[in-house]
Fold:
Amino acid sequence: MKYSQLFIPTLKEAPADAETASHQYMVRAGLIRQLASGIYSTLPLGLRVLRKIENIIREEMNNIGGQELFLPSIQPAELWKESGRWDFYGKELLRIRDRHDREFCYGPTHEEVITDLVRKEVHSYKQLPLTFYQIQTKFRDEVRPRFGIMRGREFSMKDAYSFHADEESVNKTYDDMARAYSNIFERCGLEYKKVEADTGSIGGARSHEFHVLADSGEDEIGFCNTCDFASNLEMAQRCLPTKTNASENQTPPVVKEISTPGKKTIEEVTNFLSITPQEVIKTIVFESDAGLVAGLCRGDREINPIKLKKLIDCEWLHSADQSKQADDIAYGYIGPIGLKMPIYADAEIMQMPQAVAGANKTDFHLTGIAPQRDLSQVITGDLCFARADDPCPQCSSGKLQVKRGIELGHIFVLGDKYSKAMKANFLDSNGKEQTMVMGCYGIGVGRTAAAAIEQLHDEKGICWPKSIAPFQIEIIPVNMKDEETVTVSENLYYSFREKGLEILLDDRADRAGIKFKDADLLGLPVQIIIGPKTLQEGLIEIRIRKTGESISSPVTQAIEETQRILATL
Structure:
C-alpha cells in the first residue's frame, strides 16, 4: 500500500488525557480516534492490527475444535433475570427498552445467550462436548473509562463457551484452551504469564488469567523467583508459619485497657505506644449478605476481601459504611474482644505471642491480648494480600516477586452456575436427565493490541512484533524529486508485493526528517531507506525498528536480505 492512498492522520503531540504509552501512540499514529468517553473509532492501520490478532485467535480456536458463530449484542432482560444476574451485575450493564417497553441490555458477555441457544438445540450426551466462540463488540459502562482502548466502554472481544456432560470433559477443554491461549500470545510476540485468578462476577470453580507484564498494568501479579508459580495478587495464597512465636515458658500476658485519646490509625497507635505494626491486631468491619462480620489481620498487613468472602462463603461483601454509625461499633477503636459479630482472623494472628487491639470503646485500646488464649473461637484462614518477598506458597524456598500486569485473557470452569439456573439439561447414556457443565474463555482483542504497545515501545514510538504489525516493511525514499530514488523505491515496492510481503511505501513529498519520525512512530518492524547517496554505490539501508540496527545491502539483494532479517524477528 502507498502512504498517499492510506488514511494515516498522525499527530506530533498526544492528547492531554492520554496517560499510557499505548493510548498516546495509538492516537498519535492514527490507529484510533475518540468518539465519546471510552468509545473509539478504529482507523485503517489500527484495524489491520486487530484483524491480524483476530486471525491468530481464529486459527488457535479452530485447532482445538472451536466453532465460530455470531450472537446478538442486544439481549432480552428475561435471560439475565433467569440466570440471576440482572440485578447482581450492577451499573456496568447498559439497560435499554424497545418501543414496546420491553427490557434489554447491550451484552457485556454472552453466557445467558449461548446457554439459551444450547438448551434449545442439544438434548443428548451424544451431542457433547461442544465449544463455540465469537469475536464481537461488547459494552460495559465503566465508571471511569481510561487508558484508551485498554479500558474502554465499547470493546472487541473473543468469547468462547463450552458445554460438557461431566467435569472430566470440561477440564480437558479448559487445559486445551489454556494451551491455545499460550500459543495466541506467543504468536502475537508478547511476554506473558498465566496466573491463578478469581472468578469474579462471571462465577465458576476454576480460573486463570493471562497477563502481559507492564508498568501501566492495573493488576499486581505475584510470581516466584524460583519455581513456575504465578498468581494475581488478589488470589495469591501465602505460605503461613506453622509455629507460634510465643515461648511455652513465657508468663501469659494480662489484658489491660489503656487510654489512647484520638489515636485511631495503626501509625498513630504504634507511635503512641512505641510498638511495631506487627504487634497490633487490625480489625475491619465488613457488610455482607450474611450480615456484619469482622476481619482481623496484623497491623502491617491488608485484608483481602476476596479471600474473606470465600472463607465466609457469602454472595457479596464490602467494607462497612462508617457513615452509618452503629451504637455498638466504635470506629477507629474496634477490637475482637467483646465484638458482637462473627469474627474471621488471618492465620498469622494466631502466631502473635501478644498483641494490642481496639477496646471497642472510643479513645481506648487493649494490651496483653494472647490470640491463642483470647481468640480461640474465631475462624482462621489465609485472609491477607500476599506481597513481595513473602515465601512462595508452592515451593516454599523461593520468594514472591510482584509486578504490574495487563490482563488480556481469562478462562473459567463455570460448572453448572448458568446451566442449572437456566435448565440446560441433557439425557445421559442411561436416559437420565443431567445438567450440562460449562466453561467460558475470553480474550480482549483491542487490549492485546494495546498491551503489545505497552510492552514494545520506545521514546520514538511503537515497535510492533511482525506477526501483528499493520505492515511488515516500510520503504522510505528520502528524496521524491530524485528520479532514480523514486524508480528504485517503486520497483522494490512492487517486487516485495509479488513475494506476498506486506509493505508500505512512503511516497509523500515531505522532508526526510518527517518521514523518519513518522516511520518510527508507526513502528513497522523493518525500514528500507533509499536515497541518492547510497544508490551511487548501488546500496540501500535496511534498519530494524526495535533495535535500531542498520545494515547496508546491494539493491539487487534487497529482497533476500529483508526476508532474512524478517525471519529473525
